Here is the input.
Amino acid sequence: MEIKAIKEALDATVIEGENALDGSIEHVYASDLMSDVLAFGQPNSILLTGLATQQAVISAHMAEFKGVVFIRGKKVRDGTQKFARDHHLVLMSTELDMYDACVRVDSKRQDGHAAPGESVPGETSEGILLRHEFSIEGSDFGSAGMVSTEIKSLLKTIGLDPKLIRRVGISTYEGEMNVVMHAKRAKVHVTITPKLIEVMIEDEGKGIPDINLAMEKGFSTATEEQRAMGFGSGMGLPNIRNNSDDMELTSEVGRGTKLRMKFYIR
Here is the structure.
């Protein structure tokens, strides 16, 4: 289905990306839980959401979505529109609620406008050796996701497989959000060799008392405010485990947590 067909079906207003409406998408995913978007959303999709936040747009970018439609007439603020422009995402707003928006899109699809898009495979570069360090500040929701975005852009510049880049992006983003929600600050160390991408996030914070419990789907210590942003559903660490080839998590209560993620380049 072309993005412009979704615009027509929802009678949506384009906030950003007018020149990209001829692009095609394969799926439409409706959710206000960003960890679910990262866990279950498929590339080349459009996100329908009631969360008009920068984190919703960054989540769509990490999941390789083509754009976001905000329901109930919501509009983004701050630097979200610029982020979408810089990363080639379409942003739209519709006055419809979630249910009606889904019904309208499905009806349009059944009318015969579906046209699956194609993802372009990347090439794995040989002879890569790169190390980089980033910093994350706890409770800085305004900048949350920017480190993951930089890492994802770096991997794209190198020319790695888009599917691999997506897995690294999702895992790093989940780790970054955990720091923002639960720690004081963190350092992110990225090491890339011809056969391996390794991301280590080492934070200063309260630590995790029970790692086995923290790894269970649905377990969360997020505040109501954090949940309102679409995070804290207890899918963060399980998402990282599912997307990385190897994951190591250690923590000391009162000191902090170290998360090491490995992704093999095949």
